User: Fold these one by one.
Assistant:
Number 1:
Amino acid sequence: MRKTWAPRGHTPLLRFWQRHDRLSVISGLSVSPGRRHLGLYYRLHRTNIHQAEVCEFLRHLLRHLRGPVIVLWDNGRIHKGPPIRALCHRFPRLHLEFLPPYAPELNPDEGIWTLTKATLANGRPDCVTTLARDLLATLRRVRRSPAALRGCITGSDLPLFLR
């Protein structure tokens, strides 16, 4: 929920109902070292994301990115374990680096979700399909905006490497 506007003296009412449908998204920003090209990759799932989906996402990145791929991510349980280690062993150009625990300010991907949630705030989709459509449209808009992607990286507390 975000702030909204209404005529003075008329409290806006947002109607909702509790649903148990869900969408889970895994995403990542890419920066090519040579050209400084920025990219946004994501995968949408109708269930919770587990290590199998993380491995699929990493394989997706490896198909689309050339050369060594260094992944910076948080210390979530789904980012660790035998399937992830096996994937790294199978693809030596994949390198995983973990951010410190409890440091979302270092994660540029948090900026992507700040932008996305701000766009989707106060919406009330009637079904999970409508939510998925709106979410994908928002992510495509962010993906096409180099300024937004750069802002997510420079807005994080990572050392600046885009200068």
Number 2:
Amino acid sequence: MNEFVLKRIERKLASLPEERIYQVLDYVEFLEARYATRPEGAATPLQKLAEKVEDTLRAGRVPVNAIKTTMDAMSAAGRLMSGLAAAGRAVVDEVAAAAAPQARTEAKPETRTPPPEGGPPTA
């Protein structure tokens, strides 16, 4: 997608009240269902959950302010989970880096002594 068009759409959306944003979303989903030429990008499990919660709240005619507050909380939870996942990856990387030199020293090559005349090699 053209970066300038995307930024222009973002500016236009920022000027709309929350109630109208959901109308825009509905229209975009309609256009996608009708004219999409490629599948949409894969959502993370947390994004899928958030979208399901949002759709359920909208179907239940929950006020827009309550939906916004709920989605803000889910967004904060998503950022927290991403931070935890990054910290976990960093710990695993550090442990793997620390274990790699130790594994190399433990796996010393086997030394063999030359065989005596006509005999099998000895370890």
Number 3:
Amino acid sequence: MKTLANERDRESILRRLASLQPDSSRQWGRMTPHQAICHLSDSFRVPLGLRETKPVAAGPLKRWFIKWAALYLPLRWPKGIPTMPENDQLIGGSAPTSFEGDRRELVQLITEFTRPAEAVAQASHPLFGKIPISQWLRWGYLHMDHHLRQFGA
């Protein structure tokens, strides 16, 4: 299973991120590459304790099943899953500023995220609930992979 805990997997994600261009063609969805970078940054800010999101209402069994399916089934995440309003650049997410500056900030957030600190250990995912650092690192890889594939990177 690929994870940001694995240096080879992390370096692969960072290389793919470096290949993303402002004019990369989108394969699905409505985000631009620049909005996707800001969306990913906002998403990493949540477990780092730098951004708040509201929990998604779901019972414990549904939460467990969705988490298990998202993190452990050998399937790519489906296209078109709605983004939480707090992390949607058209609603409440951080507005894009400079493509290269925002990309550098995302790399910095990934670096901070992969050196799990107390914030990540205490963080609660909006849908999965409180999860261990190993699952956060798996989620981080899968979320990055999903949006990089969105632009063929």
